[in-house]
Every structure is written in C-alpha cells, then in structure tokens.
Design goal:
The chain is α/β, with parallel strands linked by helices. The protein is built from 13 helices and 25 strands. It has 2 domains: about 5-355, Alpha-Beta Complex (Spore Coat Polysaccharide Biosynthesis Protein SpsA, Chain A); about 365-455, Hexapeptide repeat proteins (UDP N-Acetylglucosamine Acyltransferase, domain 1, 3 Solenoid), CATH 2.160.10.10. The strands form 8 sheets. It has a 7-stranded mixed β-sheet, with helices on both faces. It has a 4-stranded parallel β-sheet with strand order 20-21-23-25. β5 (about 120-125), α5 and β6 form a beta-alpha-beta unit.
Length: about 450
C-alpha cells in the first residue's frame, strides 16, 4: 500500500532516470518515516564496547601483500565542500606542493601497486556535481585505470520531502535543491545498481577498502588488509580512541538485545542521551569511516534482502535552501555506510592509530594539513612529524570560506611543528615563513598583518 507522497516521489525518481534499486531503497525508508520512526538509538539499548588494536596483531608481511592483490579501493568523493564556500569537488583543493587530495590519493595507490605487485583498482563514488571535475583532474594519470573496471560510479539522489506532508518539495527558483544525496550509506545501493559489485567479484577481487577522499590518512594499509583477510569477517571498520574534539560525534557500542556492534551517530541520539554520547570514558571509540567488506558476503546479503540492506535511518531536517532559513523545512532521509556493521553477523572493528584519521571538514583542518605538521614521504603517505597534532581555531568570520582563507595565507601556512595551539580572533593576514611555538592566541579589532619571518610565542 503506497501513500500519495511516496507515489509522487517514486515517479519523480523514475522520471529522473534513477536506478530501480535506488527507488526501492528510498521507498523502504519512506515507509519507516511515514510510520513515525526516528532512527534514534537510546542509551538504554546499548552498552560500551572494547576492541583489539592493530598494534597488538601479528601480521605476516606476505599475507598483507597477498590480501592487497585481491583488494579494490573505493573513495567517497561526492562532496562539494559547500560549508567551506566551494562549488566543486572538495578533493580538488590544493594540499601540498601543488598536489590536490586527488593527486595524493592517485600517487598513494600507484606506489602501492608497484610495491606489492597488486592491481589495486581505484574507483571513486562521485556525485553528479563532482564527476566531471574529478575525471578531468585524474586524466593526467594514464596508468590509473584498471582494465575492465571504471574509475568512477555515481551515487544516487532522492527527493527532499516537505516536513508537513512528506511530499516531494518543489522549488522553481533552483530545482537542483529539490534533490539531496541519500547519505554515504548509498554506497551499497549504488554498487549493486550499477553492476560494479558483481563486476568486481567476476574479476576475482575478494574485498573492498572504502574511505573518504578528504582523509589522506586513509591509505590502503597491507597490515590492516592482512588482518581483515585473516579474520574471515564479512565487514570491519577501523576505529580510533575518541578525543575531546570527538565529543559531539558518533561512537561504537554493543546492542544489548542481540550483541551486534552498532555505530550510533549524533543525529541518532536524543537530547536526554547527549551526556552519554559525550562521555569519552563510557564510549571510547569512534569510526574513521575507513571500512572493509567482503564482496561475496555483501552481494549475498543484498540479494537475500532484495537489494535493500536496511541500514538504520537518519531523519535530517533542513531548509530546502540550506542558506535561506525562510525557505520551507524539508526532511532528508539519510543512512551512514558504517552502520552496515550491525547487519553482518561476525563483523569486526580494529583500533588504528590516529594518523589514519585526518579528515578535512573545515579550514582549521586544511591549515594543519598544509603546514609542516605532516611529512609526505616517497610513498605519498601523510606522516605526522609531531607527537600531538596542534589545535587550530580560526575565526569563522574571516577564515571559514576557502577564498577568504586563501587571501589571509597568501604565502602558505605557517610552521606549526612546534605549536600546541593556534587561536586566531579577528582579521589577520600571515606573511611568509611565520613560525608558531607553543600556545598562541591572536586578537585584533581591525585588519592586521603578521610580518614575514615572525616567530609567534605565548606571552
């Protein structure tokens, strides 16, 4: 039995040429939404969860190399970096030496292929907005494609739904804003719908490593590949210890009713459970969004569920134009790819070092990545040159958007190798070869400059 709202949403997706698998998956979540489900995970339903560390696991180097030879790599690359003022793929941002995220990712993979004699196909899950720019940037790497496999596949999209009646929103001023991505949980739907999942199996690949393109710490590690292959697990996620900066983010836990590992996101946490979410002693681990899954296990599970993996739903309420609060409120139905861990019996987690989790979500993160805090070796891996990465907090009024940020660091990032923290309040422009030592806080009421060669230290 379909509601009028679902019928209209189905028709809209079909008219837009979306794959039937994506339409059926959307319908599954629409019905949950219609029934009033919120996707919340109460604290009372879960308990803390401990896990082993990769540092305590003995991995034979040849086993790691062998695992890489039957591994494919997928990078999630659908984001435009709109929160940072960008209008193209965030992965095109310059990181170091004129290299973008895409350049470094491509070079990391090409190096690993040579090092381990592995085909190691690299495939990007792009959005309609990031595809053309990404593929143009990758064209310079003529040896990157692997015969019989694409360099990209496209994530799906779905209608935004009016909060009042769950019908697809109409927005004639900008029809593109009538659509939204279904969250990165769409990975599994898109892999199956495009046929890529079966293509990988047919070509002899056994597992996939998935990570975000804005996380350059997420290089394909043969040790982790060897560990995952040796466990025989269908699914695994790399985890790190939570720090104060992770208090508002998601965490791993164990579900009481069946003992399955779950990944609870902040959007799935009710206000009364906010304190438990932020308790770093109770919930000690968060996801890196670096995950591994067995291709055959994924295909069999999707087949048994008629293409709908059934991930926990995230109900996200926004305005149809996120930049204009006067526009109607809409619901975006989303899922998180890491939440698939609860679908698979025998799924695993493994603690890894923090240098495998270096996401760039803000210009604060970008400044650290561009500085001398990280070294880039011949393997193109970003290796921290310090014991603890400094905390950076740039005034969002002047540095939040990439164009504004670039204007205030025209000669590049300052040296942060000896810094503990850098807090910038007000409009400061940095000259060349500036060095930050210890804890530094800058404040100004009017535009000001840091002269070239300055050494900034705590007063």
């Amino acid at each position: 039995m379909s509601s009028a709202g679902l019928d209209r949403a189905r028709a809209k997706m079909t008219d837009a040429g979306l794959d039937p698998v994506a339409v059926d998956t959307f319908a599954h979540y629409y019905r949950l939404l219609e029934r009033g489900e919120t996707g919340m995970i109460p604290e009372s339903s879960i308990e803390p969860f401990e896990m082993e560390s990769i540092d305590d696991v003995d991995i034979d180097p040849e086993a790691g190399s062998a695992a890489l030879r039957t591994t494919a790599v997928i990078k999630l690359n659908g984001g435009l970096g709109t929160s940072m003022g960008m209008e193209r793929a965030k992965s095109l941002l310059c990181v170091r030496k004129g290299w973008s995220f895409l350049d470094i990712i491509a070079r990391q993979v090409l190096h690993l292929r040579r090092e381990h004699d592995a085909p190691l196909p690299l495939i990007f899950m792009n959005s309609f907005h990031t595809s053309s720019d990404t593929m143009a940037a990758l064209a310079r790497y003529a040896d990157l494609p692997v015969d019989g496999l694409p360099l990209e596949f496209l994530q799906n999209r779905e209608p935004k739904l009016l909060v009042d009646d769950l019908t697809p929103v109409s927005f004639s001023r900008n029809p593109d804003l009538e659509w939204c991505p279904p969250g990165h949980g769409d990975l599994y739907t898109a892999l199956r719908g495009t046929g890529l999942l079966q293509d990988l199996i047919d070509q002899g690949y056994e597992r996939v490593f998935v990570s975000n393109s804005d996380n350059l710490g997420a290089v394909v590690d043969p040790r982790v590949a060897g560990w995952f292959a040796g466990t025989g697990a269908p699914f695994a996620i790399e985890a790190v210890r939570r720090t104060p900066s992770d208090r508002k983010g998601g965490h791993f836990a164990r579900r009481k009713v069946d003992g399955r590992i779950v990944l609870r996101e902040s959007a799935q946490t009710s206000p009364e459970d906010a304190a438990a979410l932020a308790d770093l002693e109770r919930h000690r681990y968060c996801s890196t969004n670096n995950l591994w899954f067995d291709l055959r296990a994924m295909a069999e599970t999707l087949d048994s569920r008629r293409g709908v993996l059934g991930l926990p739903m995230i109900r996200n309420v926004k305005h149809v134009d996120p930049a204009d609060p006067s526009t109607p409120e809409v619901i975006q139905i989303e899922t998180a790819m890491g939440s698939a861990i609860e679908v698979f019996e025998g799924a695993r987690t493994i603690e890894v070092s923090r240098d495998r989790f270096v996401p760039v979500k803000t210009t604060n993160d970008l400044l650290v990545l561009r500085s001398d805090v990280y070294d880039v070796g011949s393997d193109f891996v970003m290796t921290p040159a310090v014991d603890e990465v400094p905390f950076v907090d740039l005034d969002p009024d002047y540095y939040k958007l990439v164009p504004d940020f670039e204007r205030r660091f025209p000669e590049g990032a300052p040296s942060l190798r000896e810094a503990t923290s850098l807090k910038v309040s007000g409009d400061w422009t940095f000259g060349t070869k500036v060095k930050v030592v210890g804890d530094v806080s800058l404040e100004t009421a009017a535009a000001d400059r840091i002269p070239p060669g300055s050494v900034l230290e705590h007063d």
